[in-house]
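Worked Example 4.2. Read the sequence first, then its structure tokens.
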Amino acid sequence: MAAPRKAAVVGVALSDCGRLDGVTPYALHAQAARRALADAGLDRTHVDGFASAGLGVLAPVEVAEYLGLRPSWVDSTSVGGATWEVMAAHAADAIAAGHARAVLLVYGSTARADIRSGRRTGTLSFGGRGPLQFEAPYGHTLVAKYAMAARRHMAEYGTTVEQLAEVAVQARANAALNPDALYRDPVTVDDVLSGPVIADPFTKLHCCLRSDGGAAVLLAAGDVVRDCRTDPVWVLGTGEHVSHAAMSEWPDFTVSPAAESGRRAFGRAGVRPDEMDLAEIYDAFTYMTLVTLEDLGFCRKGEGGAFVGDGRLRVAGGALPVNTDGGGLSAQHPGMRGLFLLVEAVRQLRGEGGARQVRRPDGSLPRLAVASGTGGWFCSSGTVVLGRG
């Protein structure tokens, strides 16, 4: 059965993003939160639910106080980049249960500035002092884990490095339409392949950029929706799944936890993948996009390499526009980027994409979108199906 439409996204915003110096994560949280509330036409007195998470020591209770909030419902789930889709699901459930009327999800990070200044504000480890300590001495870093998974898919299904490179090329083409993207110059498959190797088979352009920035999403109950200045984008269905932490516990490197989270989200929404007008997918590496498209059901397992060809992922003329803002590969990636996926999906459904606006074949605005976030090294997944009208 289709999920009841009890919660809607009514406000979205990004903070300043890109190369930022002299700002704090708290300031980016505040900037994104203010902009999201203004987008909805509400103020902080309407917010009775709050959710945040981040690398380092940004506790939600401290961030809420910094924002002048006194929430009666709070969430601090932390499962890496999938956090925000999972939090959106929790917020929708809380709204449906009457535990909150307006829930603010907010994130801010100075990931790039921290590296440049030598600050260490925390790392994504999922228990680096536990079982994962036996992987680290062998150079099994985060990028190496993704590279190993990509190589398994290549060996199993014949996926080529050129097909993976196509993901980066098309992400950059979409970023070229986004004035706020950090990198907008076009790239070719040859450009991707000729770059410095980071972890075989990934060269530099197979990997996400590192930026500063923040985002905020405001979800609200139906009675609050009536007071908002924006048209609501409804949460139709959600799903979440946690797979593994240690690579030795991952049953199949070619299957991500999106296979479960996507199945649940689409099932609860009562819609099919082929009904989506666009998809926003976590893309810290090109392989993430390819395998998530498979696992969400846009193509069969092993067919992702062929599926991403022929410009399919482009806003301009693509059959399934993916990461319409340029994604983490070209637009911005301040770590734990899942909240940015929700912001872009909502903007597209509201017709606010500007030069990168997706249109249906008849020229109308998109009606359905999916945002799927991945955390860790395919350790977790959260998927949210959104719709308007």
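Now turn to a second chain, presented in exactly the same format:
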Amino acid sequence: MSKSIGELATLCLRNLEAYDFDGVRAMCTEKATVWHNDGRADQTIDEKLEQLRPLAGTVGSLRFDIARQFHSADEVLQQHVLRLAMPDGSQSEVHAAMYFRFDGYLIDRMEEYVYEAGTA
């Protein structure tokens, strides 16, 4: 494998930016799970991707700007800002910390903590 797990975590987000949900799925284990700090239970990766599919028709573009990323042998922790541009020209951003756990070179677990950024 020529890519590090840090590069693979970034590639996963780039696939989401391109609405390549099949590409994201191919990067995950069969039993991959996703957690968000929204108070809901874990989701399978398939449930999460099905939830994200409508973005392709409602969001003009999205971009993950990674502020920092740390990784060990099988884990990546990063801070990023998700920037969304809507078809009407409006824009918004979501600040988040995200954790990826890998099984080999496949993502086995994702956890995302979304938080409201304070004003400067």
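Notes for the reader: The helical segments are 5-17, 21-26, 45-52, 55-58. Strands lie at 28-36, 43-44, 61-71, 75-85, 91-103, 106-115.
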